[in-house]
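Work Package 3 committed the consortium to producing structural models of liganded targets before the mid-term review. Because experimental data for this complex are still outstanding, the team generated a predictive model from sequence and the ligand definition alone, so that downstream docking and mutagenesis planning could proceed in parallel. The input record is reproduced below exactly as it was submitted to the modelling pipeline, together with the SMILES string for pyridoxal-5'-phosphate.
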Amino acid sequence: MQELRRICDTHGILLICDEVQAGCGRTGKWWAVQHCGVEPDIITIAKGIASGMPLGVTLTRAEIMDWVPGSHASTFGGNPVCIAAALATMDVLEREGVANSAKVGAHMKQRMSKVGWRRIVRWRRARQRPVIRRRDRDRQREEDVAATRARDSA
Ligand SMILES: Cc1ncc(COP(=O)(O)O)c(C=O)c1O
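The resulting structure, written out as tokens with the ligand in place, is given here.
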């Protein structure tokens, strides 16, 4: 990310971070990019910012946001209800949400480092095996039925 910032600065390019999935306190900071010590020019936000109410946000500095009306569009640009949901969400995030993510994240990281990644991967594979076997068996059954039908109609 720091190299991207340097390249953008050198060539006058805006650095845009899509934080639709990673932002809104999920990583223990308001924006995931903050973990890199980089300040982007624009952050795009949606989903979590209004707790599931449809809202998309373009976050940037005032000097960048000098676009004339109609020069950009958003499916869920904003309406009073969703903006109220976003304000309430930000209130919760500010009060406790971001700090809680940081706390829970640190706890999980610490516990998972004790278990070890290999064991977690093995455990997941073991849990998926019966599902894969069932899927293969169902597929085989469908092929047998199709083959019988084709034989009968011939
Ligand atoms: C990473 C990412 N960026 C952008 C979008 C688009 O968000 P929206 O449909 O709210 O504009 C999505 C939607 O799932 C997404 O996952």
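Reviewers should note the following from the model. The two ends are 63 Å apart (CA to CA). These observations will guide the Year 2 experiments.
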